Amino acid sequence: MPKLSSDLTGTINHKLAATSPSGIRAFDRSVSNIPGIIKLTLGEPDMNTPEHVKQAAIKSIQDNDSHYAPQMGKPELLEAISKYVERTRGVKYDPESEIVVTVGATEALASTLFALLNTGDKVIIPTPVFALYFPLVAMTGATPIQVDTSADGFVLTPEKLEEVLQKEGHGARAVLLNYPSNPTGREYPQETLEGLAKVIAKHHLYAIADEIYSDLVYGVKHYSLTSMIPERTIFISGLSKSHAMTGYRLGYVAGPQEIMGSIGKMHAFLVTTVTDNVQAAAVEALNNGQEDPVEFRKTYEKRRDFVVAGLRDLGFEMSTPEGAFYIFAKIPESFGKDDVKFATELAHQAKVGVTPGSAFGAGGEGYVRLSYASSDEDLKEALNRIGKFVKELN
């Protein structure tokens, strides 16, 4: 194997070199080779992509749909996204100028942040949250401002946002919200979002709304900043969670035409265009798969209730998640706030993999995230193992 020439050592992007890899993925890799482990670490649905969606992708391949698609997305997919957002958010985005199809919601985030931000800007990010946001913001030269929401039930309140902007708001360009939240599963009530919208408008900010889990909510209604301040909101979503299509890597971003030109330009520089058969599958999912998330949601809600009840019986404290497929549970007091030690010992001694809460930023210390996007059998066995582990601790 070739070895890098010594005179090239260290000649890489310094911002990248200073950025730590994903703590979620790093911990997952560290425990994945433990024999017999049940992994509840990643947000990976155990469901299969609906058959009619798979067949649409297959037909695309058979029809030799194998050439460069339009850079912003196939017209039929842009139209399907526009109709979906109008149907669910009441906002009409022009398919030709206000929507970009991306390689997953991750690329949608990257294209958005690189299009919006300059060195010295700040982005307000309520935490704990999906930790990918921090390095993406930092790579643009901007600064992520973490706002610990643990004292407010893991929800950013309008009062807290106003307080942060008064103290650290100079140079703030955007507020980045993820709801339902990864890792807490918390949703934002209508009145809270309306209050946040007023503060965001008052301070002349963008709202970046990552709503990838919005089709998976339980017993509550999902409200969107997109509906409240569309003139300021960059709306990001995709089909990975709603239709169990994580491997398809299909996301999208929508917003006012004046900014979408820049986001589309960044997207084109990064990936050129999205795979043809994936876009064909997405058209089918959006046009004819409206009931698919409903069926998945029933299964996830049942699993959520089972795991929450089981963990509470074992003495864990947590809020009942209103969406997504994660539980954010406080670790036993004997570990203090050392969630990494707890998760490591749980993995090696009980053979159950969970993610340390500190991987999700400020306010996550002392918690662990469990994904219940796993089989009923695995969840039942995981609870049995966790129960034995906790009893030995006590």
UniProtKB/TrEMBL annotation:
<protein>
    <recommendedName>
        <fullName>Aminotransferase</fullName>
        <ecNumber>2.6.1.-</ecNumber>
    </recommendedName>
</protein>
<dbReference type="InterPro" id="IPR015421">
    <property type="entry name" value="PyrdxlP-dep_Trfase_major"/>
</dbReference>
<feature type="domain" description="Aminotransferase class I/classII large">
    <location>
        <begin position="37"/>
        <end position="386"/>
    </location>
</feature>
<keyword id="KW-0663">Pyridoxal phosphate</keyword>
<dbReference type="GO" id="GO:0008483">
    <property type="term" value="F:transaminase activity"/>
</dbReference>
<keyword id="KW-0808">Transferase</keyword>
<dbReference type="Pfam" id="PF00155">
    <property type="entry name" value="Aminotran_1_2"/>
</dbReference>
<dbReference type="InterPro" id="IPR004839">
    <property type="entry name" value="Aminotransferase_I/II_large"/>
</dbReference>
<dbReference type="InterPro" id="IPR050596">
    <property type="entry name" value="AspAT/PAT-like"/>
</dbReference>
<comment type="similarity">
    <text>Belongs to the class-I pyridoxal-phosphate-dependent aminotransferase family.</text>
</comment>
<dbReference type="InterPro" id="IPR015422">
    <property type="entry name" value="PyrdxlP-dep_Trfase_small"/>
</dbReference>
<dbReference type="InterPro" id="IPR015424">
    <property type="entry name" value="PyrdxlP-dep_Trfase"/>
</dbReference>
<keyword id="KW-0032">Aminotransferase</keyword>
<dbReference type="InterPro" id="IPR004838">
    <property type="entry name" value="NHTrfase_class1_PyrdxlP-BS"/>
</dbReference>
